[in-house]
Automatic annotation (TrEMBL):
The organism of origin for this protein: Tychaedon coryphoeus
GO CC annotation, single: SMN complex
Gene3D superfamilies per record: 1.20.58.1070
One GO term (biological process): spliceosomal complex assembly
Family the entry assigns: Belongs to the gemin-2 family.
Keywords linked to the UniProt accession: Cytoplasm, mRNA processing, mRNA splicing, Nucleus
UniProt-recorded name of the protein: Gem-associated protein 2
Length: 223
C-alpha cells in the first residue's frame, strides 16, 4: 500500500514519434475457404463418396499397419529424421519439384530415380511414421505449399499423411489442416487454366479436411 501511494494517479507514456513512421501490419486470416470457381464446386454426393472412400483407406491402413511396418524397405530408401525439414521435402517431392526444374534427363535404361522424382507414400514407408513424424512432415509440406504451386507429388503425400493422422486431432494438427484447406481454396480460386484434374484434387483435400475431420466451416457448400 505504501508503494502504491507513491505512484502518481496519471501516467503519461513517453512515445518516440520516429518509431511510428511505419504503418503497423496486421495479419488477418479468413475463417472459411474461398469458394470454388463457377462450375467447379463439388456436389454433396461427391463429397460424401470421397469421405467414405477415405474412411475405408484409413481403416485398411490401421488394420494392416503392423504388416506393412515389418516389410523391408528397398536399399535406396533412407527415410530422413523427423526434424530434417529439407530432407523430407526432397524425399517426398523429389529434386525436380523441390528445385523447380522443368524437366530432368530421361534415364529409361536406368529405371526410376526416386531421388529426382520423389518417393511415393508407400505403405511400407508411411506405416513406419509415428504421429509426431506425420505431423512434422505435414507441416513441412504445407509450409512449402504456402509459396509454391500444387503438384501431383504433393497431392499424393498430403492425402497419405491425412490418412495417417489420428483422431481426435491434436491442436497443432488441427491448425495445420485448416491452414492446408485455406491454401487449397486460394490456389483453386487463382487457377486460370481451369485444370479439372488439379481443381478436383484441391476439392478433395478441402472436402476431407472439412467433412471428415469435422471442420465444417471450411466445407464447400453445393450450389
Amino acid at each position: 500500500r505504501i508503494e502504491a501511494a507513491r505512484c502518481p494517479d496519471v501516467v503519461v507514456a513517453q512515445i518516440d514519434p520516429r518509431k511510428l513512421k511505419k504503418k503497423p501490419t496486421v495479419n488477418i486470416s479468413i475463417s472459411g475457404c474461398q469458394p470454388a470457381p463457377e462450375g467447379y464446386s463439388p456436389t454433396l454426393k461427391w463429397q460424401q463418396q470421397q469421405v467414405a472412400n477415405f474412411s475405408a483407406v484409413r481403416q485398411s491402413l490401421n488394420k494392416h499397419r503392423n504388416h506393412w511396418r515389418s516389410q523391408h524397405l528397398d536399399s535406396n530408401v533412407t527415410m530422413p529424421k523427423s526434424e530434417d525439414e529439407e530432407g523430407w521435402k526432397k524425399f517426398c517431392l523429389g529434386e525436380r519439384v523441390y528445385s523447380e526444374i522443368d524437366a530432368l534427363p530421361d534415364n529409361e535404361n536406368l529405371g526410376i530415380d526416386y531421388m529426382k522424382v520423389g518417393f511415393p507414400p508407400l505403405l511400407s514407408i508411411v506405416s513406419r511414421m509415428n504421429q509426431a513424424t506425420v505431423t512434422s512432415v505435414l507441416e513441412y509440406l504445407i509450409s512449402w505449399f504456402g509459396e509454391k504451386k500444387f503438384t501431383p507429388e504433393l497431392g499424393r503425400w498430403l492425402y497419405a499423411l491425412l490418412a495417417c493422422l489420428e483422431k481426435p486431432l491434436l491442436p497443432e494438427a488441427h491448425s495445420l489442416i485448416r491452414q492446408l484447406a485455406r491454401r487449397c481454396s486460394e490456389v483453386r480460386a487463382l487457377e486460370e487454366s481451369k485444370n479439372e484434374e488439379q481443381i478436383s484434387a484441391l476439392n478433395l483435400i478441402i472436402c476431407l479436411v472439412s467433412r471428415y475431420f469435422d471442420q465444417r466451416d471450411l466445407a464447400d457448400e453445393p450450389s
